Automatic annotation (TrEMBL):
It comes from Klenkia sesuvii. This is MFS transporter permease. Keywords: Membrane, Transmembrane, Transmembrane helix. The chain crosses the membrane at residues 32-55, 75-98, 105-125, 131-149, 161-179, 214-236, 243-275. It comes from the Bacteria. The keyword Ribonucleoprotein does not apply. The keyword Signal does not apply.
C-alpha cells in the first residue's frame, strides 16, 4: 500500500466498504496523533480501568477457563509470574511505542501483549464487549509504519487502518442491537431494562427518571434505533461531520456514565481515531519545517466498568 495524495475535489465519493473506500488515503499526521493517544491509554487501562486483572495473579489456576483464542494458541496459564511479566512488558512497550520509534516492532509487541492481557482478563467468566475496536486499532497501527507528526502526506495504508477501526466501532453498536434482539427480543425494548439498570446503579443524575413512566422505555427504543442505524456513520466524509459524529458518540457514553456509572473507555479511545487530528497543523506550511503540536488532552475521569452485569448499551 503506497503513500498517495488525497483525491481531488472533482473525484466521485467512494462507496462505503468498496475497495476504494477501504484504501482512501488518510493524512499520516492523523495517525501520529491517534497513535500517541492509543498507546498512552494502556498504562491508564492497566493500572486504573482494568486494575482488577492484576488480581488474577493470585487466583488458583484451576479457575482459569481460557477463551477460544487462548485454547487454540495454547497460551500460558496465568500464574503469578506470567501475569506480572505481561503487565510490565505491556506498559513498557506501550510507552516506547508512543514515541513513534520502531513502529512495527513495538506496535506488534503492544498488540500481542494487550491481547494476552485481555485473555487473562476475560477467561474467568464475563467477557466485556468494549474492547474489540480498541484491539483492532492496536492491530492496524503497526501496519501503517512510520507516521511522523510533521508529515503532511496521505497514505493508503493509513486509510485502511483508520477505516478498519471505524468499521469496528460501527459494528460494536450494530451487533449490540442484534444481540439485544437475539437474546432479549422485543421485551428488551418494551420491558424494564433501563429501569432495572437505574435501580441497581443509578446516580443522582438519573434516579429522577424512575418517576417519569414513559421516559426510560422511550430511551430503550431510541437506543435500539441508534444502534441499528450505526452503519450510517460510514457515510461520514467531511471533517465537520467527523467532529460532530465523535461529539455525538462520546456524548452518548458520557450520558450513560452519568446515569449508571458505566463507561466503555477503550471503545471511546477507538472513537477518537475518527477525528481529523491533522487539522491541528492546518495553519502550518504544506512543506518544510512546521511547529510542534501540543500534547493530546489526557483522559478525564477514568471509571472502572462494573463487573456484576452487562451495561444497558
Amino acid at each position: 500500500m503506497s503513500t498517495a495524495a488525497p483525491a481531488g475535489p472533482g473525484t466521485a465519493p467512494a462507496v462505503p466498504l468498496t475497495p476504494r473506500w477501504w484504501f482512501r488515503p488518510v493524512p499520516l499526521a492523523r495517525v501520529a496523533v491517534f497513535r500517541v493517544i492509543a498507546y498512552l491509554f494502556i498504562p491508564v487501562d492497566v493500572f486504573l480501568t482494568t486494575a482488577w486483572v492484576r488480581a488474577h495473579a493470585d487466583v488458583p489456576t484451576e479457575f482459569y477457563q481460557p477463551l477460544v483464542v487462548g485454547r487454540l494458541l495454547h497460551l500460558p496459564t496465568p500464574t503469578h509470574t506470567v501475569v506480572l511479566v505481561v503487565q510490565w512488558a505491556l506498559v513498557v512497550a506501550a510507552v516506547l511505542a508512543a514515541t513513534g520509534r520502531a513502529p512495527r516492532v513495538l506496535g506488534w509487541a503492544v498488540f500481542l501483549l494487550y491481547a494476552e492481557w485481555m485473555v487473562i482478563a476475560m477467561s474467568y467468566g464475563k467477557v466485556d464487549h468494549d474492547r474489540i475496536a480498541y484491539l483492532v486499532a492496536l492491530a492496524v497501527l503497526p501496519t501503517i509504519g512510520r507516521a511522523p507528526w510533521r508529515d503532511r502526506r496521505s497514505s493508503e495504508a493509513a486509510g485502511f487502518g483508520m477505516a478498519a477501526v471505524l468499521v469496528t466501532v460501527m459494528l460494536t453498536y450494530f451487533l449490540a442491537a442484534w444481540a439485544k434482539m437475539r437474546f432479549g427480543g422485543w421485551d428488551w425494548a418494551t420491558g424494564a431494562t433501563l429501569t432495572r439498570a437505574v435501580v441497581r446503579r443509578g446516580t443522582d443524575l438519573s434516579l429522577w427518571t424512575l418517576d417519569v413512566a414513559w421516559l426510560l422505555p422511550a430511551a430503550q427504543w431510541a437506543m435500539l434505533v441508534f444502534e441499528f442505524a450505526a452503519p450510517l456513520m460510514l457515510l461520514v466524509r467531511s471533517d465537520r461531520a467527523r467532529v460532530g459524529l465523535v461529539v455525538f458518540l462520546l456524548g452518548f457514553h458520557v450520558m450513560v456514565y452519568a446515569g449508571v456509572g458505566i463507561i466503555f473507555l477503550p471503545h471511546c479511545i477507538a472513537i477518537l481515531s475518527i477525528l481529523p487530528w491533522e487539522r491541528l497543523r492546518r495553519s502550518s506550511p504544506p512543506t518544510g519545517a512546521v511547529g510542534a503540536v501540543g500534547a493530546v488532552g489526557a483522559v478525564g475521569a477514568v471509571a472502572v466498568p462494573g463487573r456484576d452485569g452487562d451495561p444497558p448499551g
